[in-house]
Design goal:
The protein is an alpha+beta fold and 261 residues long. The chain folds into two domains: 192 residues, Pnp Oxidase, Chain A; 50 residues, no CATH class. Helices cover 27% and strands 30% of the residues. The chain has seven helices and ten strands. The chain is extended, with a radius of gyration of 25 Å. It starts with 7 loop residues before the first helix and ends in an 11-residue tail after the last helix.
Length: 261
Amino acid sequence: MARSDLRIDNFKANFDAGARPNRFKVNILGPNLFRAGEMTEAVQEETDEETGEVITEGVASTLKNVKLDIEGIRCHKATLPGRALEAHTFSEYGAERQMPFKVNDGGTASFSFYCDQNFQDRAAIEGWQDSIYGGDPIKPRFAFFEEYVGTVEISAMNTRGKETLQYTLKDAYPIKYEQQDLDYSSSDIMSFTVEIAYRSFETKYVPDESDGGGLNRGRRILDALIGIGQQTGKYTNAGQSVFKRLRGLDDKLAKVQGIFG
């Protein structure tokens, strides 16, 4: 690398303001709150006090999709999960190497919430957890998996408030929440931490369409690589995976510069 390439001006010219850990939002979508059959029957029995008319099935259909929803306005700490490939030692001949055989795409993620004076978010999480085992820890009766799982959406944002990285945790449910300490000597707002288990996750990268400041070297490289692949079809398996994601960004990247810096 030429000495001139190491100048701080070159680094600054090929870098933006940087991703910040304090710019994010979380949305937790729990399981459905109504059983379709029971809920429809109950709704049909309700009548309007003024007209005496039975509430329509349209309302029942709407309520069928009502989920426990905790918007992460009060979430002040979250975790972006990672991924690991499990491998074992293997050798066709000679030196050994690591051979991947399993994708570890599930696990747990931690979220911390500020508590309002009614402990609203904690009550919702605790109710969700109760639904998993019936609320009786002495004689638990565990529900079917599909009855209590939900999804968790985590979005990282840039300094302009635009979402640039979106995580979706699938088949998620609260496996644990931490104890909370009371203290006469403290006047801080209370916080509680919940651990969410999930089966897998998806990521989506959403580039900001704002002007990148005239940096176009990365854009030219990206265009050239995608163009070669489209013309020749000579992607390797790795190339197919990488460019599948990049092609999804291609239209939105029209004004984004310096992706390869």
